[in-house]
């Protein structure tokens, strides 16, 4: 559509320019042609006038007035001649081809010939002019002065006072001159029209072939490119500027296609990267719209895919609201995060579209779009959304994984008592076969069976405590008992690895408020990490003591230590540097989460090779101040 419009404009402009130029040339031709014809007629009339003047002068000198009248009459009857007159300097018609003109005063004719002239000041050179008489038509009038000579002084006086004896006036019909001029102009105009049409067609063909068609192809390719077809290209023909433009366009399209492919691959990589994160991840722009989200967050929201969350408003997805959340009622990272507070952690209840609720833990951080940008308006928010139900599930799965590692040790603990039970039962059977009176020995064997069965039950009881789901309510837990029972389950593994054990437990038997199995899992994870750090054997030392209003638990090993470069990451999810390279990377993460859930703290007290120590701090349940705070 645009190309056709440009073509029409070009044709109109071309015809306008050529038409204007043609009109100018025609006017110039008309002017110069008329001037040329007038000049030719003037020359002709000048020649005729000279001949007539010679004849008149001869007739005047001979006093042949009838012959003079005949000459003027014959001249007036010539084709194209309208009238011939001879005027004296005063303007009186002395001779005329029309008899009715004789004796008339025609001073106006002299004024046409020479305005404001007197008889003594008439010009001596002939003049030719076009004029329109009052009765209509157009004439070409020639004024030819008849000069005073020596031969005429007797009648006309001195040439000094009377330079002109009379004025010969010849009127020619100007219509044939104009007609001839117009005919030539029409012929020239027709030829000009043909030339203009041919020139316009040639120019239009050239523009259409070398300009409009390439521009049309570029326009079509640009439209296809704007609609997402990055494979479109423009055919290159020739080597002129339009061909160079098409080559440049194709190069630009190739760069765009390559850049789009790179962006797609990076977007796919980014999407795959965040999809691998088990927690929900979403990125929000300053206008509350979700820029990108991962598969886990889509599952948390109850939608089919993360792609459907893009460009959705965060308050619509999280709370099913139609307007942004009031910052005074909700923890909005966009309103809270700033340069002074770059991160934010809060609990949030996500409301799905079907009305179901999901308890989540959100960790939000600000991400500037460009370095140095106005962070109030050019800042994205990255949120990590953890499903609290999943967190409990991960903790329980870690427990089951740890229990799996205890299988060999537990089997050994149960195997020995069961072997003793079997021997005692076989001996009892022999006693009953030989004699039924030896009851004392039989009682001893049965007492041994009871002890071994009790030992198996104790091991099973400890194992069940460790594998049970966490209780929702804290209870008084004896720290020393948990440490002893948990380490007893690891005795076989410790002995197999050649690791010694040292227990330095507080004699006051400290207690804390916690879930019993959670504390067992904390001790189990720390001790197993110590075992993994001592593949060639070593010494494990577990210490418990009261320190002010808190209970400290210290787990030390003489293993390989923790390098400085990874110390800051050991509590990160899925970060593992185990010696056997089989870790899930969740042990210390879950340990820290469990410790914090019970109001405690965990830190690395020492991390050098040969001595690594983890320190746990819990509020002392027997401290009066802690009890008062708990009650409040």
UniProtKB/TrEMBL annotation:
It catalyses: ATP + protein L-histidine = ADP + protein N-phospho-L-histidine. CDD domains: HAMP, HATPase, HisKA. The lineage of its organism: Bacteria, Pseudomonadati, Pseudomonadota, Gammaproteobacteria, Thiotrichales. Pfam families: HAMP, HATPase_c, HisKA, PAS_8, Tll0287-like. The chain crosses the membrane at residues 12-33, 185-207. InterPro entries: HAMP_dom (IPR003660), HATPase_C_sf (IPR036890), HATPase_dom (IPR003594), His_kinase_dom (IPR005467), HisK_dim/P_dom (IPR003661), HisK_dim/P_sf (IPR036097), PAS (IPR000014), PAS-like_dom_sf (IPR035965). It comes from Thiothrix winogradskyi. The keyword Oxidoreductase does not apply. Residues 409-622 form the Histidine kinase domain. It is found in: Membrane. It comes from the Bacteria. Keywords: ATP-binding, Kinase, Membrane, Nucleotide-binding, Phosphoprotein, Transferase, Transmembrane, Transmembrane helix, Two-component regulatory system. This is histidine kinase. SMART domains: HAMP, HATPase_c, HisKA. GO terms for molecular function: ATP binding.
């Amino acid at each position: 559509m645009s190309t056709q419009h440009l073509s029409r404009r070009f044709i109109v402009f071309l015809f306008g320019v050529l038409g204007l130029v043609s009109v100018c040339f025609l006017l110039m031709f008309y002017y110069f042609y008329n001037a040329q014809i007038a000049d030719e007629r003037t020359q002709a009339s000048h020649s005729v006038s000279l001949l007539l003047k010679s004849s008149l002068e001869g007739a005047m000198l001979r006093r042949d007035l009838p012959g003079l009248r005949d000459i003027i009459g014959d001249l007036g009857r010539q084709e194209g001649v309208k009238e011939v007159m001879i005027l004296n300097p005063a303007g009186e018609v002395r001779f005329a081809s029309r008899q009715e003109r004789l004796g008339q005063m025609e001073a106006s004719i002299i004024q046409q010939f020479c305005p404001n002239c007197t008889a003594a000041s008439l010009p001596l050179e002939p003049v030719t002019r076009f004029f329109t008489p009052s009765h209509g038509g157009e004439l070409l009038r020639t004024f030819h002065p008849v000069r005073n000579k020596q031969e005429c002084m007797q009648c006309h006086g001195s040439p000094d006072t009377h330079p002109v004896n009379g004025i010969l006036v010849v009127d020619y019909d100007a219509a044939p001159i104009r007609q001839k001029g117009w005919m030539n102009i029409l012929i020239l105009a027709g030829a000009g029209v043909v030339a203009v049409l041919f020139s316009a067609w040639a120019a239009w063909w050239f523009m259409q072939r070398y300009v409009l068609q390439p521009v049309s192809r570029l326009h079509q390719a640009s439209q296809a490119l704007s609609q997402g077809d990055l494979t479109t290209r423009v055919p290159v023909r020739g080597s002129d500027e339009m061909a160079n433009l098409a080559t440049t366009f194709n190069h630009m399209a190739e760069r765009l296609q390559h850049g789009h492919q790179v962006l797609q691959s990076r977007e796919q990589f980014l999407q795959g990267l965040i999809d691998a994160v088990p927690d929900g991840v979403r990125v929000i722009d300053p206008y509350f719209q979700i820029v990108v989200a991962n598969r886990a967050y889509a599952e948390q929201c109850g939608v089919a895919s993360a792609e459907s969350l893009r460009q959705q408003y965060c308050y619509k997805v999280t709370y099913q609201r139609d307007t942004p959340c009031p910052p005074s009622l909700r923890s909005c990272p966009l309103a809270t995060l700033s340069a002074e507070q770059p991160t934010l952690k809060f609990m949030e209840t996500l409301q799905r579209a079907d009305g179901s609720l999901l308890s989540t833990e959100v960790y939000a951080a600000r991400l500037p779009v460009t370095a140095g940008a106005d962070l109030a308006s050019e800042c994205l928010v990255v949120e990590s959304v953890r499903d609290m139900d999943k967190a409990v599930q991960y903790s329980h799965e870690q427990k089951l994984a740890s229990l799996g590692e205890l299988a060999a040790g537990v089997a050994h603990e149960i195997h020995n008592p069961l072997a003793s039970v079997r021997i005692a039962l076989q001996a009892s059977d022999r006693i009953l076969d030989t004699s039924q009176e030896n009851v004392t020995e039989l009682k001893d064997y049965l007492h041994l069976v009871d002890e071994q069965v009790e030992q198996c039950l104790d091991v099973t009881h400890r194992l069940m405590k460790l594998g049970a789901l966490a209780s929702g309510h804290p209870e008084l837990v004896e720290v020393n008992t948990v440490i002893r029972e948990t380490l007893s389950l690891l005795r076989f593994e410790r002995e197999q690895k050649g690791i010694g054990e040292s227990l330095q437990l507080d004699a006051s038997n400290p207690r804390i408020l916690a879930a019993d199995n959670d504390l067992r899992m904390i001790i189990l994870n720390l001790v197993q990490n110590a075992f993994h750090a001592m593949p060639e054997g070593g010494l494990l030392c577990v210490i418990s003591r009261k320190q002010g209003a808190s209970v400290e638990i210290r787990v030390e090993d003489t293993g390989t230590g923790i390098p400085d470069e990874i110390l800051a990451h050991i509590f990160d999810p899925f970060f593992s540097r185990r010696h056997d390279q089989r870790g899930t990377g969740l042990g210390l993460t879950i340990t820290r989460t469990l410790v914090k859930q019970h109001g405690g703290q965990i830190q690395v007290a020492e991390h050098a090779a040969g001595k690594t120590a983890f320190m746990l701090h819990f509020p002392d349940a027997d401290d009066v101040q802690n009890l008062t705070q708990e009650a409040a």
